[in-house]
Amino acid sequence: MNQLELIQELAIKNNTKIVLLVLDGVGGVPLQPGGPTELEAARTPNLDALAARSACGLSTPVAPGITPGSGPGHLSLFGYDPLQYEIGRGVLEALGIGFDLQPNDVAARGNFCTVDAQGLITDRRAGRIPTQEGARRVELLRSIRLPGVQTFVEPVKEYRFALVLRGEGLAGGLRDTDPQQTGAAPLPAVAYDPAAQRTAELVNQWIAQAARILAGHPPANMLTLRGFAVDPNLPKFPDVYKLRAAAVAVYPMYKGVARLVGMDILTVQGEAPSDEFETLRQHWDAYDFFFVHIKKTDSTGEDGNFEAKAHVIETVDAALPALLDLKPDVLIVTGDHSTPSLLKSHSWHPLPILLSARTGRGDRVTAFGETACLGGSLGHMRHVDIMPLALAHALRLTKYGA
Amino acid sequence: MNQLELIQELAIKNNTKIVLLVLDGVGGVPLQPGGPTELEAARTPNLDALAARSACGLSTPVAPGITPGSGPGHLSLFGYDPLQYEIGRGVLEALGIGFDLQPNDVAARGNFCTVDAQGLITDRRAGRIPTQEGARRVELLRSIRLPGVQTFVEPVKEYRFALVLRGEGLAGGLRDTDPQQTGAAPLPAVAYDPAAQRTAELVNQWIAQAARILAGHPPANMLTLRGFAVDPNLPKFPDVYKLRAAAVAVYPMYKGVARLVGMDILTVQGEAPSDEFETLRQHWDAYDFFFVHIKKTDSTGEDGNFEAKAHVIETVDAALPALLDLKPDVLIVTGDHSTPSLLKSHSWHPLPILLSARTGRGDRVTAFGETACLGGSLGHMRHVDIMPLALAHALRLTKYGA
What we know:
Two copies of one chain form a homodimer. By secondary structure, chain A is an alpha/beta fold. The first copy, chain A, has 13 helices and 13 strands. The first copy, chain A, has helices at residues 3-10, 38-41, 45-52, 70-77, 89-96, 131-141, 197-214, 237-241, 252-260, 273-282, 296-302, 306-324, 386-393; strands at residues 18-23, 55-60, 106-115, 121-123, 150-157, 160-166, 222-230, 245-248, 264-266, 289-294, 330-334, 351-357, 379-382. In chain A, the strands form two sheets. An eight-stranded mixed β-sheet of chain A has the order 9-8-10-1-11-12-2-13, with helices on both faces. In chain A, strands 3, 4, 5, 6 and 7 form a five-stranded antiparallel β-sheet that branches. Chain A binds chain B through residues 29-30, 33-34, 37, 58, 62-73, 82-83, 86-87, 89, 92-93, 96, 340, 342-343, 345-350, 370-371, 374-375, 379-380, and chain B through 1, 3, 6-7, 10, 53, 359-364, 375-377, 379-381, 385, 387-393, 395, 397-402.
């Protein structure tokens, strides 16, 4: 029995409310040794006061040293070990652009590339064509028809797009067509799972038609497909935890992952933290669990903009009283991974975490920050343990064993 | 997918340098409640200054309460879970005496014992004969010849020796011949793996000849063999981590374990920490990763010599600037296990650890010691997570998942 199965066995319903507030990429590292992180530099009187009456700690998203993408990072937050419950790359790409993926759809990531007269790849990213150039070619590819299945082609960014096949009897067990090097021709789609044999044939028909269409449109005169995948059919969050669960998020990727685990997706008017908290308030009675996702802590970190990231944190802090006014029984504040401005990318560093509940055990932490949370009563924990702790503090887990 | 496989999938090459400095058995416990450990008693201004600008913590070698031998202790340090990747006892014995074990060699630990006129064991350790007496008998056993295979017999210490068989078609799946009690006769070698059937027959031939030779040499007039094993063919460190890796060690066991995972072994002129750091300097450009092993912290601990152990630590500290001058991108200082003088043996106590890197998150630790490192930003970690963290801080791990 894995952890998720254990929790499912122990979970019960009651009238408590749990809020998981995720500041994407909130963790940082100092720009200079001894200096503050973004969170430590930000003025956060409300978060600090909350930390002072909460249990605090540091939490590792997936495993020490592992930098998670958004998919594994959020699965961990939702209590699904991402090494056990994987989401294919094609599915994540489709979710990331807000595509309404159906349970048996096969999704793949596509790259436009440049091939020479012999059909050998000379540039795997087609000279990083502008997004509108990619979108123009996607429009052309939408004319392709396959027997018995629907196809969807969606632009992503620059040379990237998503391909989705919808119909009966499809399967995701196909190898990438990207040879991962220049000087080689794109590979045909090959089924490594016998159940994907027909899917491979259909994909190859699609590629052949696409090749004819793109031939006259250099530098993006060919394409490769990667990460074929179907909805992994994860155990559903409301079933596992016996929680009516809703996601409050602005960006497609996070709504997509939440939908994949069976949460309802609430519509937010606006993009500010205060708008998201207002959405929460409007639906407060209808749900037991709210996943609230703040995106801009991550995007400012990826831009390497320390000040902007600190400012985003301050806007969350300023809006926080509206959330606290709802008096959730359990409130957890953390991130899905760190995004230090220093690195301009996701990182592996543990996240500060606070858990506020009547049943919480206090500690001496009086500020919400990476160093302040060291020595908190949650110690050093892992993200997959957040949901079990949340349920426990909501008194929603029965005793294990007699 | 286990952790090592995940790391192998994510690891990439770059130009960074990583140094893992292992003070064997460095962890201790106070002689008196409230007193210092050996590390805390030692004057270590360089290590303390390094700790003040590093991420610190405590690290458990294998699992709480588990006292590791050198084999499991070092496998953990190298990122191989020793409960998943085992090295047979015979192989460790051969490595410990510097025997140049080949991939298909079958190695066993041997004990001289005393048998009575009926062939029943009266002393399983032959009265702990002096090492030279053991060596004299080993010399006699070297005259034994087996059909189609080479045999090597090597003295270890007192009543202990190592036996190695080399040839085609051998296998390690044999039960011990030691009945583990007096009053019983040594057992014949029995194959529990059918592939080891011929090996069992050869070993029994060897034992029969050895019994005839030893009969006239009481008290060591018989022998038992234990821990038959072959090179476990571990995933190779340079392949897993994509690191050109070198070991700087003085004692055979540590060179042996490093060789078993595929590190190059560098020759050290002298035995002092400064000699080892000089070796590092000489080969700095040729490798990406250096495992540097300091032995005498352990041997002084095993002697129960608190002052001597503290002094060894001081010699490492004094030599440290030469290592720091090389400016490794990631420097980790810890031990493979604790060896408290109080216990005169290896122990299970977690080790202080420091990780120095530009990407490190600081903490309030300002000295390198068991108590000072509590509350450091590495928290309480495990040795198998050291390599993933080292690679992450060297920016040698790509993102996991999209």
